[in-house]
Amino acid sequence: MNNQHKSGFVSIIGRPNVGKSTILNWIIGEKVSIVSNKPQTTRNRISGIYNDEDCQIVFLDTPGMQNPRNKLGKYMLKASTSTMKDTDLIMCVVDTSSYIGRMDKNIMEQLKHTSNTKILVINKMDQIPKEEALKIISMYDALGIFDEIIPVSALKGDNMDSIVPTLQKYLTYGPKFYPDDVATDQTLKVMISEIIREKILLYTDEEIPHGTMVQIERLKEREDKEIVDIDALIFCERSSHKKILIGKDGRKIKGIGMAARKELEAMLEKQVNLSLWLKVKENWRDNENYIRNFGFDEKEI
Ligand SMILES: Nc1nc2c(ncn2[C@@H]2O[C@H](COP(=O)(O)OP(=O)(O)OP(=O)(O)O)[C@@H](O)[C@H]2O)c(=O)[nH]1
Ligand SMILES: [Mg+2]
Asked: Which parts of this chain are annotated as the region G2 (predicted)?
């Protein structure tokens, strides 16, 4: 092992929808964390492992921080704050809006009181003119919290190349924590369920995307053919939501299934036979047992 090899953990934190998961996927070079235009897409701590000759960085993507409205929300906020405390480097992501809201202030306040290295990534630079960008950068610079500020556009790839070298400066010498071919520590079942949930986020609006959960009931490769059979259960919170998810003549659920199957086939490099089943679990997001069974266990964060 090269004794100049660096390694470390970097948490990615910030408000919902600022592009944390998009940034992670760009750096890793593959989709490890689902993305959508709805806030609160990421629900758990998700690792993405970056490797090059000189370093290994274990990124931890987290749920967007916002005031919780239910027990799941409380879990999500805890997942973000505890991840932040667990890493030497914190990469805080904001977008280009010049308004710093209450939660942003709260995050900045927490950051002020940690001794970790703090990098600010200002994302979505494609949305504003250059003069405005400079104003926003100096606004954050004036806070005196961040060791580095990196303006980027994850969507366009602008300046994204400078994130890893900047982080590298602050990493310490150390070995790899994961083998080179591991991109994330999520199980295959979790990744599949997330891809299905991403398509639900894409196809639905208002409360429905936030109130759905996907569980993989069966994942089996056929012995005689290159086909993977996947059965997934989609939980939603009300029978009215189930109706919307099914859609007129079953069109919505078919669309979700088709979009998910296409992506799963590309990921697994096999034909996928996907069956989706819908079930109602009233207000599961406020039920301790349900959320624990769905993998949101406070003891694990
Ligand atoms: N215009 C623009 N949109 C972006 C950029 N980066 C991400 N987005 C979009 O912003 C939305 C949110 O992206 P995500 O990566 O899911 O955001 P997130 O911060 O992980 O969100 P949560 O998981 O909900 O906290 C998606 O629609 C992205 O396509 C960018 O650089 N420019
Ligand atoms: Mg996310």
From this structure: 40-44
